[in-house]
């Protein structure tokens, strides 16, 4: 089973590495890191990841994972990821996104009229791009699974492991990564965080249209 | 403020990328990725990360983050990380670990008689290495902060942001990464996972002495 983890400049690493850690250790999988060129990709806080294959070289994958970015409109404008998704999504078993990676799925036409989730600050933008936006943390619609912001990739991928390999395998994976979360604050959603922090975060993350 | 994210072969990427995503976007920080050599480092499920500096070149850091590995005994036997920690820990403001990264702190003498946590499956081994082992998800003792297995790095780093920059900044960060966890199963700790999965995971992860 071939896993394609998509890389692009200024992506948010945790969006990708959560699902990678959950999916990448399953038996019989091969993890590919696919980008526009073979050059190392620099993420938005400086991490440098080396691709293993390019968009031109990889024609198919069983599972595709598309991460988001704090400057997601640049990836949207660039178009390279969306163009590749148009090529590989029709034959993929699962096409997934985390955070604003959903906007790239939408740009490829994959979310037209389809239920999907995204980072809480860009819900309006994803709706403008054609999706039926949900506030759920993980949304599955047929072969497409979307996760909310950044850390939601872990929940998204555990859900996917359960769908593919069953509950026992998903629970074993959760136990292996000791995913028994204990956030030291209760500020992980716009419903629970202080209002002024929500306003500030929205202004930084939501893009030009909101 | 200089952040040193430690890299070594077959490390577990999420151990490092959780804290990286939480700490790396704070104002005034510079993220360094430090390894034994400048060569790209391959993680335990195939992700390739490029170091920005070597152990020889980096003499100090304000915050050090040491990830773990599913084959943690190899890093312990290699000795390179522990040797570097002996050099830089005395002048670091914060020395931290996630998962079995704690065993490397212990090997450097940093955890002698000190409260610390680690992946649930290696608690006995960490005690043998001299730490006073806690089952807490995050343990702070003076300048040393340790996190439990893999995903606990997110909780560890949010705790650290609160200690350094205050509660508002930590909550803002939590909101930015939408860390409102909703695991699809309740199997993230040995207390809640099915017993046979705990036994299997322990046999794979605990190392040769248990």
TrEMBL record, chains A, B:
InterPro entries: Class_I_gatase-like, DJ-1/PfpI, INH-QAR. Pfam families: DJ-1_PfpI. This is DJ-1/PfpI family protein. Residues 4-161 form the DJ-1/PfpI domain. GO terms for biological process: regulation of DNA-templated transcription. CDD domains: GATase1_PfpI_2. It comes from the Bacteria. Coiled coil: none annotated.
């Amino acid at each position: 089973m071939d896993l394609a983890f998509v890389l692009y400049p200024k992506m948010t690493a945790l969006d990708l590495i959560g699902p990678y850690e959950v999916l990448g250790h399953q038996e019989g999988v091969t993890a590919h890191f696919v980008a526009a060129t073979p050059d190392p990709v620099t993420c938005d806080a400086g991490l440098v990841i080396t691709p293993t294959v390019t968009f031109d070289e990889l024609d198919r994958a069983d599972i595709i994972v598309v991460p988001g970015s704090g400057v997601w409109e640049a990836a949207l404008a660039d178009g390279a990821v969306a163009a590749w998704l148009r090529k590989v999504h029709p034959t993929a078993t699962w096409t997934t996104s985390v955070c604003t990676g959903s906007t790239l799925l939408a740009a490829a036409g994959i979310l037209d009229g389809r239920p999907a989730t995204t980072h809480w600050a860009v819900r309006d933008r994803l709706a403008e791009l054609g999706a039926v936006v949900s506030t759920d943390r993980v949304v599955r619609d047929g072969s497409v699974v979307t996760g909310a912001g950044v850390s939601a990739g872990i929940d998204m991928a555990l859900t996917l492991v359960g769908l593919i390999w069953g509950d026992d395998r998903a629970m074993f994976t959760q136990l292996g990564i000791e995913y028994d979360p204990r956030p030291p604050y209760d500020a992980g959603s716009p419903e629970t965080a202080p209002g002024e922090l929500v306003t500030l975060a929205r202004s930084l993350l939501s893009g030009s249209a909101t």
